[in-house]
Amino acid sequence: MDIKIKRVHMLEVIEKLPKSLYRCLCDCGNEKILRVGHFNTGKMKSCGCHWKTGMTGSRELISYSNMMARCHNKNNKRYKDYGAKGIFVCEEWRNNFKQFIADMGKCPDGYQIDRIDNTKGYYKENCRWVSPKENMLNRSISRNWYLYGNKFTCLKDASKFFGVSTCSISAWCLGRYVAGKYYPPKNDCYAEYIYPAQKLTSGVPVPNVGKSL
Fold it and tell me: Would you say residue 53 lies in a domain?
């Protein structure tokens, strides 16, 4: 069995050692040596970090452990979108859940951690608790939509305002192809990425017409 995928709670086995021992990586970034039998019982949930704050199973600890894993655990399925791209957790928070809580405070019900600037890492000045909707609107591929002097942060809001489908709003701002013919955006309608370094990733190539995206 591939021990790299052997995981219990916040602990993931990264090396099998002599004398029936596992070297484990905790989502907080610390390593811990455990006996195989002790690990397999599932009673050890972390390196011990979740005991130090009395916040076992809390939204804050879950957010923290997920943040650490995707930024610093190469075996995490989301590492390719974070750590591999240079998105890391600041030294003040790394392996220090108490400092994370001191800086961020309690997480409101239903909220998630979000980076204000998605091109930068996780640190006090760049993080906040937001609703899932706000989080979705602040992805690296998110755009603002401008139509006839009105600004919208998502297609759905623009479609409700004008009483048309989201596909129509997209066509007004980005143009579209119909039967092989390209129809350019409407005047005074365009879209801009929140993070300009991002490139248009739709399957339809759009010529540089009007304001460039």
Answer: no
From the centroid of its chain, how far is CA 89? 12
Token pair of 120 as six digits: 């930068």
Strand partners of residue 114: 128
51 lies in a domain?
A: no
The residues near 74 (Cβ < 8 Å, ≥ 6 apart) are 83, 84
> What tokens appear for 205 in the block?
């190539």
103 and 66 both lie in a single domain: yes
Mean pLDDT check: name the lowest of 78-87, 152-161, 197-206.
197-206
In a domain, 173, yes or no: yes
111-115's contacts with Cβ under 8 Å and 24+ in sequence apart are 111/59, 112/63, 113/63, 113/67, 114/138
More confident residue, 141 or 186: 186
Q: Domain limits at 211?
A: 140-213
Q: What is the pLDDT of residues 1-21, one digit of tens each?
A: 445 457 777 788 888 888 889
In contact, 113 and 97? CB cutoff 8 Å: no
| Structure-model confidence comparison of residues 71 and 3, the more confident one | 71
| 131 and 191 share one domain | no
Q: Are 85 and 155 in the same domain?
A: no
Number of domains in the chain: 3
The radius of gyration computed from the CA coordinates of the chain, to the nearest angstrom, equals: 23
